[in-house]
Amino acid sequence: MTRGEILYMESGQVQMTEEGLAFPSFRNLYESDKNRGKPLFKKYIDALWYVYSKDAPSYYSTSEIDRIAAYNARSITRGGWNSLIRDERFLACANEYVKHIKTRYDIQYEKLMDDIDREIEFLQNIPLTTKVKQTVEIEDENGEIVKTFRDVEVPNSDARKNAHKSISELFKVQDELKKRIKEENTTIIKKYVRIFDNPNI
Length: 201
Prior knowledge:
The strands form 2 sheets. A two-stranded antiparallel ribbon has the order 1-2. It has a two-stranded antiparallel sheet with strand order 3-4. The protein folds into 2 domains: 1-103 and 186-201, no CATH class; 104-184. It is built from 8 helices and 4 strands. Strand 1 and strand 2 (13-16) form a beta hairpin. It has helices spanning 18-21, 24-32, 39-52, 64-74, 80-84, 88-101, 104-124, 157-184, and strands spanning 7-10, 13-16, 129-139, 145-155. By secondary structure, the chain is of the alpha+beta class. The longest helix has 28 residues, at 157-184.
């Protein structure tokens, strides 16, 4: 469990520590869910863990947008993430959770990774060919041979080669950033009190 984390996965279910339940937004959500087993509360903390937790499997390998898309793909909630953020209770929990677990290094990390992703996407879309002007000889209306300029498509080899080199370097930067952020978010062992021991609460 990562330092400062209040959500954790156990036996395939997302759980919350007593420390997390002390947060006003989570306490309000928990108490407002009057249904047996707290299904709404469980659904909301499940979404938060998969999208924002540093312990989630895809946190270091995908962007927030991609994690939301992955949540939508596995979610049985109609409307997915968009339906959750329309609930003010969920938004309050999300804001408080992110504020609690994200360090300034996490914020910098996400911005840098998003910038690198955009640059890599741009470089990957450099075309295979490019147009250049070349001098060609043509016959004019008087039957005389004259020189003129025409656009000709040629292989875009140099630009593609430089792009591949830049992409390789950017991937190395991403790997270094991942290593540094993982070292920053040290995992700690601590005993936490479960709040779902009785599923009939």
